[in-house]
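Ticket #4471: structure export looks truncated?
Reporter: QA, pipeline team
Priority: medium

Steps to reproduce: submit the single chain below to the structure queue and open the exported record.
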Amino acid sequence: MGWLARKAERERLRSARVEPLRLAPVEVQIMGRASLDVLRARNVSSTGLGVFVPHGFVGIDLADAVQLVVTLPGHRPFLARGVIRHVTGSGADARHFGVEFTDIADRDRDAILKYVAARLG
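Actual output as written to the record:
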């Protein structure tokens, strides 16, 4: 595969969002201003992830900064920082959150890209 083809494939993977397998979840620990939760990702991409919070987050707003510990199946946990960009519902009814990565090591983003590629088959 030539350089241009590899670049095109990488861009395709960067925009792809995949759902983790139920038996091989992606674990996400989210640490916000007033909360700490261990969750499973609903979807994953190299630019961020979505999580479902069964009990909701009260007091979480768009653009809130969070620290993350992400564990991909078969990989070591890694640290990242992100910003909540999307919330479905409001107050106690907010259940789905989209987090955009704002600070993630290149090796960890590469691990996510490999995970996404493997899930896409």
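Status: closed, not a bug. The export was complete when the record was re-opened. Leaving a note from the reviewer for reference: The CA atoms of residues 68 and 75 lie 15 Å apart.
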